[in-house]
Amino acid sequence: MPMSQRTILKCSSFITITLALFACQSKPQRTLPYYDTPDFTPKWEINENFHQIRSFSLVNQENQTFTEADIEGKICVVDFFFTSCPGICPKMAANMVDLQKVFLDDDEILLLSHSVTPDFDSVFVLKQYAAEKGVDFSRWKLLTGERSEIYDLGRKYYFVEEDEGILRTEDYFLHTENFILIDKQRHIRGIYNGLDPNSIQSLIADIKVLEAE
Q1: CA atoms within 13 A on the CB side of 158
Q2: Whole-model pTM?
Q3: Which residues, in sequence order, are bridge partners of residue 144?
Protein backbone atom coordinates (compact mmCIF):
# COMPACT_ATOMS: atom_id res chain seq x y z
CA MET A 1 0.00 0.00 0.00
CA PRO A 2 1.42 3.45 -0.90
CA MET A 3 2.65 5.56 2.00
CA SER A 4 -0.02 8.23 1.47
CA GLN A 5 -2.86 5.70 1.76
CA ARG A 6 -1.42 4.21 4.96
CA THR A 7 -1.14 7.69 6.43
CA ILE A 8 -4.75 8.49 5.54
CA LEU A 9 -5.98 5.25 7.13
CA LYS A 10 -4.02 5.92 10.32
CA CYS A 11 -5.34 9.46 10.53
CA SER A 12 -8.88 8.26 9.89
CA SER A 13 -8.62 5.63 12.65
CA PHE A 14 -7.18 8.17 15.07
CA ILE A 15 -10.00 10.63 14.40
CA THR A 16 -12.66 7.93 14.81
CA ILE A 17 -11.24 6.78 18.16
CA THR A 18 -10.84 10.36 19.39
CA LEU A 19 -14.45 11.22 18.51
CA ALA A 20 -15.70 8.07 20.22
CA LEU A 21 -13.78 8.87 23.40
CA PHE A 22 -15.04 12.45 23.34
CA ALA A 23 -18.62 11.26 22.94
CA CYS A 24 -18.28 8.91 25.93
CA GLN A 25 -16.75 11.63 28.09
CA SER A 26 -19.27 14.30 27.13
CA LYS A 27 -22.37 12.15 27.60
CA PRO A 28 -24.11 13.44 30.75
CA GLN A 29 -24.74 10.94 33.53
CA ARG A 30 -28.45 10.40 34.14
CA THR A 31 -29.75 11.53 37.51
CA LEU A 32 -33.06 11.01 39.29
CA PRO A 33 -35.26 13.80 40.67
CA TYR A 34 -36.43 14.10 44.26
CA TYR A 35 -40.05 14.22 45.39
CA ASP A 36 -41.58 15.92 48.40
CA THR A 37 -45.27 16.31 47.56
CA PRO A 38 -48.16 13.90 46.93
CA ASP A 39 -48.46 15.01 43.31
CA PHE A 40 -44.88 13.86 42.67
CA THR A 41 -43.65 17.08 41.15
CA PRO A 42 -39.93 16.47 40.45
CA LYS A 43 -37.33 18.57 42.24
CA TRP A 44 -33.68 18.72 41.25
CA GLU A 45 -32.22 20.57 44.21
CA ILE A 46 -32.79 19.84 47.89
CA ASN A 47 -31.77 21.26 51.24
CA GLU A 48 -31.15 19.70 54.63
CA ASN A 49 -34.84 20.01 55.56
CA PHE A 50 -36.10 18.26 52.44
CA HIS A 51 -38.83 15.64 52.88
CA GLN A 52 -37.63 12.20 53.95
CA ILE A 53 -39.20 9.09 55.42
CA ARG A 54 -39.53 9.63 59.16
CA SER A 55 -38.37 7.31 61.91
CA PHE A 56 -40.57 4.27 62.51
CA SER A 57 -40.81 1.01 64.41
CA LEU A 58 -42.34 -2.10 62.82
CA VAL A 59 -41.86 -5.88 63.00
CA ASN A 60 -40.58 -8.17 60.23
CA GLN A 61 -41.51 -11.74 59.33
CA GLU A 62 -38.85 -13.08 61.70
CA ASN A 63 -40.46 -11.23 64.63
CA GLN A 64 -37.61 -8.73 64.80
CA THR A 65 -38.09 -5.03 65.39
CA PHE A 66 -37.42 -3.13 62.17
CA THR A 67 -36.70 0.61 62.25
CA GLU A 68 -35.23 3.36 60.11
CA ALA A 69 -31.81 2.29 61.40
CA ASP A 70 -32.19 -0.95 59.43
CA ILE A 71 -32.41 0.93 56.14
CA GLU A 72 -29.53 3.30 56.82
CA GLY A 73 -27.28 3.34 53.77
CA LYS A 74 -29.74 1.21 51.78
CA ILE A 75 -31.70 1.82 48.59
CA CYS A 76 -35.25 0.61 49.22
CA VAL A 77 -38.21 -0.39 47.08
CA VAL A 78 -41.39 -0.01 49.12
CA ASP A 79 -44.92 -1.28 48.63
CA PHE A 80 -48.09 -1.87 50.64
CA PHE A 81 -50.03 -5.15 50.43
CA PHE A 82 -52.02 -7.71 52.40
CA THR A 83 -51.60 -11.46 52.39
CA SER A 84 -55.27 -12.29 51.73
CA CYS A 85 -55.52 -9.92 48.75
CA PRO A 86 -57.04 -11.75 45.75
CA GLY A 87 -56.52 -8.93 43.28
CA ILE A 88 -53.42 -6.85 42.60
CA CYS A 89 -51.18 -8.10 45.42
CA PRO A 90 -50.21 -11.49 43.88
CA LYS A 91 -48.95 -9.74 40.74
CA MET A 92 -47.12 -7.15 42.83
CA ALA A 93 -45.52 -9.97 44.82
CA ALA A 94 -44.44 -11.69 41.59
CA ASN A 95 -42.77 -8.49 40.43
CA MET A 96 -41.08 -8.11 43.81
CA VAL A 97 -39.75 -11.65 43.33
CA ASP A 98 -38.31 -10.53 40.00
CA LEU A 99 -36.63 -7.57 41.69
CA GLN A 100 -35.30 -9.90 44.37
CA LYS A 101 -33.71 -12.08 41.70
CA VAL A 102 -32.00 -9.12 40.06
CA PHE A 103 -30.57 -7.75 43.31
CA LEU A 104 -30.28 -10.94 45.37
CA ASP A 105 -26.53 -10.54 45.91
CA ASP A 106 -26.60 -6.76 46.23
CA ASP A 107 -26.38 -5.71 49.86
CA GLU A 108 -27.21 -2.10 49.01
CA ILE A 109 -30.80 -3.02 48.12
CA LEU A 110 -33.77 -3.81 50.37
CA LEU A 111 -37.37 -4.59 49.41
CA LEU A 112 -39.97 -3.55 52.00
CA SER A 113 -43.59 -4.73 51.88
CA HIS A 114 -45.90 -3.24 54.52
CA SER A 115 -49.11 -5.06 55.44
CA VAL A 116 -52.20 -2.83 55.36
CA THR A 117 -54.15 -5.44 57.38
CA PRO A 118 -51.79 -5.79 60.34
CA ASP A 119 -54.53 -7.13 62.62
CA PHE A 120 -54.70 -10.20 60.38
CA ASP A 121 -51.14 -10.29 59.05
CA SER A 122 -49.35 -11.44 62.17
CA VAL A 123 -45.70 -12.44 62.18
CA PHE A 124 -46.78 -16.06 61.78
CA VAL A 125 -48.95 -15.24 58.75
CA LEU A 126 -46.21 -13.14 57.17
CA LYS A 127 -43.67 -15.91 57.62
CA GLN A 128 -45.99 -18.42 55.93
CA TYR A 129 -46.62 -15.96 53.10
CA ALA A 130 -42.88 -15.42 52.72
CA ALA A 131 -42.31 -19.16 52.35
CA GLU A 132 -45.07 -19.42 49.74
CA LYS A 133 -43.73 -16.52 47.66
CA GLY A 134 -40.05 -17.45 47.87
CA VAL A 135 -39.07 -14.39 49.89
CA ASP A 136 -35.37 -14.21 50.73
CA PHE A 137 -35.18 -12.62 54.18
CA SER A 138 -31.79 -11.04 53.53
CA ARG A 139 -33.23 -8.98 50.68
CA TRP A 140 -36.99 -8.66 51.30
CA LYS A 141 -38.71 -7.71 54.55
CA LEU A 142 -42.43 -8.18 55.15
CA LEU A 143 -43.53 -5.68 57.78
CA THR A 144 -46.41 -5.46 60.22
CA GLY A 145 -47.15 -3.33 63.26
CA GLU A 146 -49.67 -0.73 64.38
CA ARG A 147 -52.19 0.12 61.68
CA SER A 148 -51.92 3.85 62.46
CA GLU A 149 -48.14 3.70 62.01
CA ILE A 150 -48.33 1.89 58.67
CA TYR A 151 -51.08 4.10 57.24
CA ASP A 152 -49.36 7.29 58.37
CA LEU A 153 -46.10 6.20 56.74
CA GLY A 154 -47.84 5.16 53.54
CA ARG A 155 -49.94 8.25 53.03
CA LYS A 156 -48.01 11.10 54.63
CA TYR A 157 -44.42 10.05 53.98
CA TYR A 158 -44.25 7.61 51.07
CA PHE A 159 -47.21 9.31 49.31
CA VAL A 160 -47.92 5.81 48.07
CA GLU A 161 -51.57 6.53 47.34
CA GLU A 162 -51.81 10.29 47.33
CA ASP A 163 -50.73 10.71 43.71
CA GLU A 164 -54.39 10.08 42.92
CA GLY A 165 -55.12 13.51 44.40
CA ILE A 166 -57.59 12.20 46.98
CA LEU A 167 -56.86 12.82 50.63
CA ARG A 168 -57.77 9.87 52.83
CA THR A 169 -57.73 9.19 56.55
CA GLU A 170 -56.83 5.97 58.35
CA ASP A 171 -60.49 4.93 58.15
CA TYR A 172 -60.11 4.44 54.40
CA PHE A 173 -58.48 1.21 53.33
CA LEU A 174 -55.03 1.71 51.78
CA HIS A 175 -54.83 -0.26 48.55
CA THR A 176 -52.41 0.67 45.78
CA GLU A 177 -50.21 -0.94 43.14
CA ASN A 178 -47.48 1.69 43.49
CA PHE A 179 -43.85 0.88 44.24
CA ILE A 180 -41.80 3.71 45.75
CA LEU A 181 -38.03 4.08 45.35
CA ILE A 182 -36.13 5.48 48.34
CA ASP A 183 -32.47 6.48 48.33
CA LYS A 184 -29.88 5.96 51.06
CA GLN A 185 -30.93 9.19 52.79
CA ARG A 186 -34.61 8.13 52.90
CA HIS A 187 -35.60 10.56 50.14
CA ILE A 188 -38.24 9.58 47.57
CA ARG A 189 -36.67 9.23 44.11
CA GLY A 190 -39.37 7.49 42.04
CA ILE A 191 -42.86 6.02 41.81
CA TYR A 192 -43.70 2.99 39.63
CA ASN A 193 -46.66 0.87 38.68
CA GLY A 194 -46.06 -2.45 40.43
CA LEU A 195 -48.26 -4.26 37.90
CA ASP A 196 -46.57 -3.00 34.74
CA PRO A 197 -43.51 -4.94 33.44
CA ASN A 198 -42.20 -1.85 31.64
CA SER A 199 -42.43 0.18 34.83
CA ILE A 200 -40.56 -2.54 36.71
CA GLN A 201 -37.77 -2.39 34.12
CA SER A 202 -37.61 1.38 34.61
CA LEU A 203 -37.38 0.79 38.35
CA ILE A 204 -34.47 -1.62 37.91
CA ALA A 205 -32.64 0.92 35.74
CA ASP A 206 -33.29 3.71 38.25
CA ILE A 207 -31.97 1.61 41.14
CA LYS A 208 -28.72 1.24 39.22
CA VAL A 209 -28.62 5.01 38.69
CA LEU A 210 -28.94 5.53 42.45
CA GLU A 211 -26.17 3.03 43.12
CA ALA A 212 -23.89 5.09 40.88
CA GLU A 213 -24.55 8.36 42.73
Answers
A1: 28
A2: 0.83
A3: 59
